Please model this.
Amino acid sequence: MQIRIQQDILDDFEQIVHNQNLNPGDFHLVQNDRTNYQGGQAVPLNFEVTVRNNRTDISRTYQSGNNTDWLREFKQDLTNGIFG
Model:
């Protein structure tokens, strides 16, 4: 199920892209909920965030949720030129 990304996360994402002298509008983000909900039990949140560079059509999927830092991984990929 596709869900909305929190605004503070989007703001951090845009800042990371700006810091690489790129345009945030060139990127498309989709977050999907992969949490295995089990009745009324508390379960770890599990999301996937897919980032696509619209100009190069290169995309990467990152794990998001409890104890993850997909923005750090994205920043490293962006710095290493993964998105073109």
About this structure: The longest strand covers residues 46-53. Residues 7-19 form the longest helix (13 residues). The chain has two helices and four strands.
